[in-house]
Amino acid sequence: MSEDLKKLYQAVLMERQKSTLGFQKREDAQHIIEAYNPVCGDQFQIYLDIENGFLQKVSYHGYGCAVSKASSSLLVESLSAKSLVDCRSQLQYFYQCMDGKETQPPEIYEALAMSKNFPGRQQCATLSWDAIQEFLLNEKGT
Amino acid sequence: MSEDLKKLYQAVLMERQKSTLGFQKREDAQHIIEAYNPVCGDQFQIYLDIENGFLQKVSYHGYGCAVSKASSSLLVESLSAKSLVDCRSQLQYFYQCMDGKETQPPEIYEALAMSKNFPGRQQCATLSWDAIQEFLLNEKGT
Amino acid sequence: MFDARLIRNQFPILNTQDRKGQPLVYLDNAATTQKPWQVMEALADFYEHHNANIHRGIYQLADDATQAYESVRAQVAQFINATPEEVIFCGGTTEAINMVAHGWGYDTLSPGDEVLVTAMEHHANFVPWQVICDRTGATFKVLPLEPDGSLSLTSLEQALTKKTKLLAITQISNTTGIINPLAEITKMAHQNDTLVLVDAAQSIANDQIDVQSMNCDFLAFSGHKLYGPMGVGVLYGKSTHLEKMSPFQQGGSMIYQVSNNKTTFKKAPHKFEAGTPPVAAALGLGAAIRFINTLGMANIKAHAQELRTHAWGKLSDMNDVALYGVALESGAIISLNIKDIHPHDVATVLGEAGLAVRAGHHCTQPLMQHYGIVGTVRISFSVYNTLSEIDHFISALSKVKSLLS
Amino acid sequence: MFDARLIRNQFPILNTQDRKGQPLVYLDNAATTQKPWQVMEALADFYEHHNANIHRGIYQLADDATQAYESVRAQVAQFINATPEEVIFCGGTTEAINMVAHGWGYDTLSPGDEVLVTAMEHHANFVPWQVICDRTGATFKVLPLEPDGSLSLTSLEQALTKKTKLLAITQISNTTGIINPLAEITKMAHQNDTLVLVDAAQSIANDQIDVQSMNCDFLAFSGHKLYGPMGVGVLYGKSTHLEKMSPFQQGGSMIYQVSNNKTTFKKAPHKFEAGTPPVAAALGLGAAIRFINTLGMANIKAHAQELRTHAWGKLSDMNDVALYGVALESGAIISLNIKDIHPHDVATVLGEAGLAVRAGHHCTQPLMQHYGIVGTVRISFSVYNTLSEIDHFISALSKVKSLLS
Ligand SMILES: Cc1ncc(COP(=O)(O)O)c(C=O)c1O
Ligand SMILES: Cc1ncc(COP(=O)(O)O)c(C=O)c1O
Questions:
Q1: In the CATH hierarchy, which fold is given to the domain comprising D41-293?
Q2: Does the pLDDT of residue C403 top 90, yes or no?
Q3: Distance (Å) from CA D174 to ligand 2 centroid
Q4: pTM, rounded to two decimals
Q5: D81: alpha, beta or left? (left if phi > 0; alpha if psi -120 to 50)
C-alpha cells in the first residue's frame, strides 16, 4: 500500500466522509448547481443562496466516491458565508494547491491533491469545484 | 517479360483485338445484355436474338481491356448460331478451360486462361461470359 | 482443458511489470482483451510484406492484400457459421449496430412501429435505437428486468407484438454476465415477424456462436474483445436483409456506378464497406481467431466457468459484498459492490496493487437505474487468468475494506 | 532536401522482393503509402505494453492508454494548426465525410438548399452528398470543370449562391494531382455563408495544412495515406459547427447521460467518438506525424515536385501518351493513357516488371466522364521514390508499347 494512497484516503478523507458536514438537500435554494462526471456517474447538487454578494446556506447532496464527497464537503466549508470576491480567490487558491503550486497547502488540500497520482481520479477532487467555478464565471457581481 | 504474359497478350489476343469480329452495336436486338465490371469500369453490351431456340445475330460493343475484348469477341464467335443447349455446354467447356480442368484447350482459350496468373485480371477473361451465363440461367427453353 | 499459465507466455504484456515492479493482474477483459504475439505479428507482417490498398490494384501486392483480407472474411464466416457474403467488416460492435439502426431503421421504421431493447443493454445497443426511433417517429421500448437483473421470457413474450419490428438484445450482459437464451428468443420474436439483432460483444470470445442455430437476423461483435486489434469488428446479417438494407456510409469500393444524377451500389458485403478498410486489423482478427480455434471454444468456456465459480463462491462468503446477476449459467463477468464503499475507491486501491478491474456504470446506465446504484466493481476473465489471480483479488479486497471502511 | 535512398531504409517493405526476385517500385502512393518501421513499432509497443480500453479505466494501463491517445489528438491538432477539441478520430476520410454529410446534413438541409461538389471529387466526397440531398430534398449540384480538368474560379463564383449551404471540395485531385486554391475558395464561399468541407486525403502528406489560414469549416483525411496505419483518420471541424452537429454514431464513451426517455451527449470531440476507438492505429498515426515532421513538409513537397516535373517532362516527350491535368502546381500524382492501350493492360505489364501503378477510374467516375474516358494509368510519388524509379517506369512503358500495340 503506497504512501500516496494512504495520504489520499486515510484520516482526513475518511473522517470527512463519515461526518455529514454540509450534506443536505435543499430544494428551495436560490441556486442549485449540478456537478456531474459522465465517466464515473458521480453526481452532486450544490445548494446556495446569494445575499448581498455573500454565499449563504451552502450545502451539497448526491452520490460519489470518497474523494469527491470529501472534496464537496470541503467546498461547503470553504465557501460558506464568503463574499463572491473571496470565493473566487478561494477557488484560485484551491486549484493552486491541486496543481502543487502552493508550497504549504493545508493538510486536507494536500491529501486531495494526491488524487492526481491515481489514474482517472483527478476529476474526483475537483468535480464540485469545477461546477462552482463555472457558476461563478456566469454570475455577475463581486 | 514472362512467358505467361507473352502467352496472354501476344499473337492471339492482339490479332483478335485488332480484328473487329462481332464488334457492332445493334439497338434493335431482341436482347441486350450488360456486362459490367465496377472495379475497372469495363463495360460491354452483347446483342442477340433468339430464333427457334437458336442464338442469332450475336454481336458485342463497348469498352474494355485487350483481354476482355478478345474474350467478348471469342464469345460472339463461339455462340453464334448455336442452340440454347449447345450454348450452355459451350459455356461449361469455356469455364473448364479457364479453370485449367480441360487438358487440351484450344490455343485461344488457353491464352485467356493465363489471365488468372495476373493480379486483378481473372474477371477480364470471363466478363462477357459471366453476363451471358446469367442471362441463359433466366432464359427458359432449351 | 488447457493450462492458463502456459497460455500467458503467448501474451507479451502479461510478462511486463508496472512502475512499482508488480506483475499485471488483468481482470478487465470485458473492456478489451490482451493480445497474443500472433496478432502483433500479423499486423507487422502485413505492413512489412503486403501493404497495399485492396480491391482496386493490378499488381501483386494489392492482389495479395485483397486475397488476405477476403480470406479473413471466409474465416469469420466459418467461425460463426455464416457465408462470407453475410460478413461485413467495420470498426467494431458500435459501428455494426449503428449500421443497422440507421441503415435498416431509416428505411423501415415509421410511426406505429416499435423497437424493443432490454434494460440490460450496453449504450451501444440502446442509444442508436433511441435516436433512430426519435427520427422516424417509431416507439422506443425498454423491457424491464427481473429484480436480479435477468430477463423474464414471459415478459418478453408479452412485450413482443406485431408492431415490434426489431428486438435488439445482448447475448451476455457486459455488467452481470447474465446469458440470454437467444435461440428461444429469436423463435418467439419471429412469430411476430420481429427481427432480432444480437449484440455478441461479450459472447464472441466466450462461447461458440452459430448464427444458423441461433437464427438471429443480425449479429455484431468487436475484434478487440476477441484477442484481436482495436478498430475492426463484424456485422453479420442474413442475406435477405442485407440485400434490401441501405449502406450507412458511402464512398469508394462500394459503388457500382456513379454519375451526377444517379449512383448504384455493389452487392453485400461490399456495399457496406465504404472506403479503405482496416486491412491490417482484419488480418490481426484472423490471427486471433486461429488462436482461439487452437485452444478450442469448449475449453475456453470451461476455463472461464471455473474461474467464475471460484470467484463467486469466495465473494458470496463475504458478508459486506453485494453481487449482481446470477450465480450460474453466466458469462466470464462478475459485478459487485462493497458496502458503503464507492466502486471507484475500490478500483483505485486495487489498481495500486497491480489489479486492473473496472469501476463505474460500464456503459449500462439503464441497468444501474434498475438496480438503483451508480456503479459496480467489475471483474472479467479470460483464457490467461488463473485461480491464483482470483485469490489475489479476493485478498486485495480485504485490504480495501480495512483501508476504506 | 533529403536523400530518398536513405529514407528507403526506414521502410521494411522497400527492401523486400517480389516472387520473381524483383525489387518493389511502388508508385501507388495516392492509394496508400508504405509505412516506416516507427509505425509498426508504435502498434506493437501499444499492444505489448499499454493495451487497455481508454476513457473509463482507473488503473495505470488504462490511464496510460488514454493519455497516449489524447496526446496524438494534440499532435494532430498542432500538425494542422487546430485545437484538440476540433480533432475527431474516425476510421478514415470516407467516414469523416459521412459524419458531416449525415450528421450535419440531416439536421440542416431542406428543399431549396443546395450542396455543391466539383466534378473532380473522389466518390467519398460525392456520393454521401448525393445521398443526403436525396434524403432531405436538397439539391445536389456538380460543378463542371475546364477541358483540362481544372476548376475555374469564375464558374465556382457563379455557382455559389445564398442557397449553397455547403461546398465539398478536394484540395488535391487524386486522379490528376490538380491543386485547388482553397484559401481563395473559402473566402468566396463564406461570402454566401456557404460552409466548406475540404477533402485533404491527398494533400495531408504532401503539403503543410493550416486550417486557420485555409479557413475551412471541415477537413478530412486518412492516416494510411500519411505513412500511418489503415483504420484511422481525422475529421477537423470548427468548434462552432461541432457543437451543433449531431453525432453520426451513438454508443459508449460519447454519452453524457442515458435514460429510457432521454439521452444527452458529451461535448466535441468525444460526442463523435462512439465506442472503442482504434487506439493503436491512432498511436501509429502519431508516429507517422513525427516521421513527417523530422523530414520537414517543405522538403517533402520539394522532393515530390522534383519527381513529378521529371516524370511529366519525359512523358510529354512520348507522342502516343496522353496526360491529364496540368503540368505545374500539381500534387504528387500523374494520370496518363497510352494511345489505343487500355490502362489495365498497361498496369498488368508494368506489374510483371515489379512496378506497382494503379489503373482504372480511381473512384472518380464523374471526372472520367468529363474526360470521356473509362480510366487512366496513375503514378503517384512519395518521400522514398527516386528519379531512377521514374526512369525505370518510363523505360518499362516502352516495353508495354512494343508488346501491346
Ligand atoms: C481524394 C480522396 N478522397 C477520399 C479518399 C478516401 O479515403 P479512404 O479510403 O481512406 O477513406 C481518397 C482515397 O482513396 C482520396 O484520394
Ligand atoms: C455488450 C457490449 N456491447 C457493445 C459494446 C461496444 O463495443 P465497442 O466499443 O468495441 O464498439 C461493448 C463493449 O464495450 C459491450 O460490452
A1: Aspartate Aminotransferase; domain 2 (3.40.640)
A2: no
A3: 36
A4: 0.95
A5: left
